[in-house]
């Protein structure tokens, strides 16, 4: 017979939850310190964001600058930033996906309401 009527060991569950929380915090810190790039116009505009999606740098090749056509430059900037953010989201899924799945979806800690 299992002590406690078959209930999971609460101390063990709390330790697992604490470890998952620490792993998640560590992964989030890594994301904040990791930079990813996106580009548009064949590399005329390059945007760099951190893994959290915060814009860190923007490089514009002088060939992309036409004072008569600022709309195209604006479109290139938007496209580069969007590409960088998509890369950041992919990185987030790679780093946080397994941890997020551990908090819910049946593969996490039994008995906790995640």
From TrEMBL:
Record's family?
Belongs to the YbaB/EbfC family.
Question: Whose protein is this, by species?
Answer: Streptomyces heilongjiangensis
Q: Where in the cell is it found?
A: Cytoplasm, Nucleoid
Database matches in PANTHER family: NUCLEOID-ASSOCIATED PROTEIN YBAB
Q: Which InterPro entries match?
A: YbaB-like_sf, YbaB/EbfC
Record key words, sorted: Coiled coil, Cytoplasm, DNA-binding
Identify this protein by name: Nucleoid-associated protein ACFQGO_19695
Q: Which residues form a coiled coil?
A: 10-37
Task: Say if the entry is tagged with keyword Nucleotide-binding.
Answer: no
HAMAP family linked = DNA_YbaB_EbfC
Q: How does it assemble?
A: Homodimer.
Q: What does this protein do?
A: Binds to DNA and alters its conformation. May be involved in regulation of gene expression, nucleoid organization and DNA protection.
Entry-linked SUPFAM superfamilies: YbaB-like
């Amino acid at each position: 017979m299992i002590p406690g009527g078959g209930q999971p060991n609460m101390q063990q569950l709390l330790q697992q939850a604490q470890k998952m929380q620490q792993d998640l915090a560590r992964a989030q810190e890594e994301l904040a310190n990791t930079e990813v790039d996106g580009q548009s116009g064949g590399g005329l505009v390059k945007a760099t964001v951190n893994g959290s999606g915060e814009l860190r740098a923007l490089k514009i090749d002088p060939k992309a600058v036409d004072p008569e056509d600022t709309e195209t430059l604006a479109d290139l900037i938007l496209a580069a930033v969007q590409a960088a953010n998509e890369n950041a989201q992919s990185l987030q899924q790679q780093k946080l996906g397994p941890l997020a799945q551990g908090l819910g979806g049946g593969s996490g800690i039994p008995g906790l309401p995640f």
